[in-house]
Amino acid sequence: MKTYDIVVIGGGSAGLTVAAGAAQFGAEVALIEKKNTLGGDCLHYGCVPSKALIAAAKEVHQLYKSAKRFGLTVHGKPGWQTAKEKVKEAVASIQEHDSEERFRGLGIDVIFAGARFRDNHHIQLSSGSIIKGKRIVIATGSSPVIPPIEGIEHLKVATNETVFDMENLPERMVMVGGGPVGLELSQALSRLGVHVTIVDSASEILQKEDEDISKPVREQLKLEMTVLTSSTVEKVIKKEGKTFVVIRGEHSQELEADTLFIAAGRKPNTEGLALEKAGVEVNKKGEIIVKETLQTSQANIYAAGDVNGAFPFTHAAGHEGKTIVANAVFGLKRKVSYENVPWAFYTDPEIFHLGKTEKEVRKEKGRDYRVYSMDCSRVDRMIAEQDKLSVVKVITDKKGKILGAHAAGGHASDWMQQLIYMKTNDDSFSKVSNSVYPYPSRGEIVKNAGDLYWREKLFESGLSKVMAKYVSLFR
Ligand SMILES: Cc1cc2nc3c(=O)[nH]c(=O)nc-3n(C[C@H](O)[C@H](O)[C@H](O)COP(=O)(O)OP(=O)(O)OC[C@H]3O[C@@H](n4cnc5c(N)ncnc54)[C@H](O)[C@@H]3O)c2cc1C
Ligand SMILES: NC(=O)c1ccc[n+]([C@@H]2O[C@H](COP(=O)([O-])OP(=O)(O)OC[C@H]3O[C@@H](n4cnc5c(N)ncnc54)[C@H](O)[C@@H]3O)[C@@H](O)[C@H]2O)c1
């Protein structure tokens, strides 16, 4: 039986970060992956294929928009096979970075097998052999939750795991769930010609955002698809040879459809791991309970990525992975923090979210905070590109410390990046105004918000009146 310094279970974003980091620091590492390829959900069923599909759909959308504007006529339907090829190309290119050879080249033993705990140090592989880990990292990810829906077998069911391989595009699709998976993929599929209805049990989509950020995105999405909130899919029925989805709640109705896409949230992949044999505890949702050091209830076992449910994004899985390398390889007690970890939803317009929302800050601090909001009406690049939606909002404390930074708009995930750096380094928002932005760039919207900070300071100090008087004399 071979003993490793670190055994990593799961070859996705979290597991690959830990395995590569630990091996580069000289640890003997085994990486176990139950599928026959590395990369996990992000590469095969998540971030990468969805962004490639979004890009393909955007091309089609832009084509129709431009044709209309220039008085041209477009014939035919967008080809699903072409869109699928684009997705496959993107996955194949990125797969090279996550190749088995690359990880073997780092000295890692890559083992393609299912893993199961025998105790808190021993792992039974589906091949039959047993390996020992001084430290073990669980990075097994998550899977889509499929809510019970009577008669679901009457129509095609898609999830993020099957959509990119669909033979043909559906004609009429009901999307169960208007979270990021539901919204991003609904918009892409709608732009490729699918008639989409989103059904969400929540009273509104994008509830984690402040209203001024979510509203422009919601309004755009509602132009491209139907969104039924406070509603759920109860069952699927057949009537006169047609299939209907029965929706209950605020928008009760029977809706004809040929495909049901399920994007109703995620469940952690812990089934079959025999966590009880290792003494690893889970919460009510089945997520592995971790301390801030990412140690589980067993000090030598760590959990990273979607399986701990803390911040289910690829970049957060990488962030957690680095923390685990520091703690498991060097014996440190570094604590993970999500305070400066953003997220972006790649709808069109995009959503960018960093730190606290105004709703959250108000709850915590009452009125003891400042908000600097700016729309695109004075950003020449956005005006030139006929962008009428983009908006940015920065929330600070009285001294200018950034508590939250949020935006909606095309490419918002790019033009908001300066604020991630500033917040991470505790820089005052006042400093944005000192930066010179290239003209005309979209990022000027952030600079304009920064200028508001000084305008307010000047006004508060009464200096503006003195200055006005001085300037009038000067003239
Ligand atoms: C449609 C979609 C779009 C997304 N888009 C984005 C995005 O744009 N940006 C972003 O940041 N996040 C995005 N996400 C979220 C992102 O994909 C996940 O947060 C990320 O993949 C989590 O990484 P992970 O390593 O925890 O899990 P995974 O990447 O799922 O990796 C887990 C691995 O463990 C393996 N495994 C499971 N059980 C076992 C076992 N018993 N033995 C051995 N191996 C096992 C699995 O086969 C898998 O390869 C998206 C998700 C979806 C569904
Ligand atoms: N751009 C990105 O970074 C990106 C994109 C996609 C996914 N993700 C990650 O993947 C995770 C999962 O996303 P998701 O959208 O699958 O889950 P989610 O939990 O974020 O959203 C699920 C939605 O489904 C609704 N819902 C749940 N059960 C329902 C039911 N029975 N009927 C109707 N509606 C129901 C919920 O109200 C919710 O709005 C996200 O938390 C995010 O971290 C990130």
From TrEMBL:
The keyword Flavoprotein applies. InterPro entries: FAD/NAD-bd_sf, FAD/NAD-binding_dom, FAD/NAD-linked_Rdtase_dimer_sf, Pyr_nuc-diS_OxRdtase, Pyr_nucl-diS_OxRdtase_dimer, Pyr_OxRdtase_I_AS. Belongs to the class-I pyridine nucleotide-disulfide oxidoreductase family. PANTHER family: MERCURIC REDUCTASE. The lineage of its organism: Bacteria, Bacillati, Bacillota, Bacilli, Bacillales. This is Pyruvate/2-oxoglutarate dehydrogenase complex, dihydrolipoamide dehydrogenase (E3) component. Residues 341-448 form the Pyridine nucleotide-disulphide oxidoreductase dimerisation domain. Binds 1 FAD per subunit. The keyword Lipid biosynthesis does not apply. It holds the Pfam family Pyr_redox_dim. NAD(+) binds at G177, G178, G179, P180, V181, G182, L183, E184, G265.
